[in-house]
Amino acid sequence: MRYLVIVKATEQSERGEFPPNAEQLFAEMGKFNDELIAAGLMLDGAGLKPSSEGRRVSFRGRGNTTVTEGPFAATSELVSGYWIWKCKDMDEALSWARRIPFDDGEVEVRPFHEPEDFEGVAPAEDIEKEKAWRAEQEKRAQAEA
Question: Which of 86, 112, 125, 138 is 20 to 30 Å apart from 7, CA to CA?
Answer without folding.
Answer: 138
